[in-house]
Sequence to fold (178 residues):
Amino acid sequence: MTLPNTYADANCPLARTLEVVGERWTLMIIRDAFYGVRRFGDFATQLGIPRAVLTSRLKSLTQEGVLTREDDGAGVVEYRLTDKGLALWPVVRALMNWGETFYSPAGVKRLLRHDLDGGVLDGEGRCGECGEVVPVQEVRSEPGPGYRSAGPASDPVSGAINTPRRLLEPIVTGRAAG
Fold:
C-alpha cells in the first residue's frame, strides 16, 4: 500500500520518493532490472511475484519514468531502466550493503567489482584498485563468500543472475533469445 498523499509536508522528498518506490516488490523489480531482467515473465519467475501485482508495479514505474516499456513489434516487450531509474543505483547499492552488514553473517552474497580492473567496490561504490567511484554501467556482480546456491538453477534467469556478469547486461530468454 502506498503512503497517503495527504501527509503534512507535501514537499517532503523522502515521502515523495516512497510514493514511487516504497510499495512492496518495487525495489526488488528495480534491483532485478539492474541485474539485467527485462521481460515480464522473467520478473515474475525470478521474484515469484503475483502477476497482477507485477503488472501494477511495472505500470507505476513506467508512468513515473523509472522504467521504459519497449515493444519490438513482434510481441516481445522489455522494460529498461531510464536515466531516472539508473539514478537509483546508489540507493539500491546502499540498501544491499545495509542488508549484507546486518543480515548476512557468512559475508556478502553478491560481490561488486569494477569490470575494467577487477577491483572490489566498497560501500560507496569506490573501486579498491583504481579509487574511482564506479558507474553502474561498469559494475560486475558475482557470487560472494556469503552466497549459498539453492541447487541447480531452476530457470535461465536465476542461472544468469547467479553467475559473474556485468550489471545492466540484458538477460535474454524464451522468444527474445531466438
User: Anything to note?
Assistant: The longest strand covers residues 67-71. The CA atoms of residues 44 and 137 lie 24 Å apart.
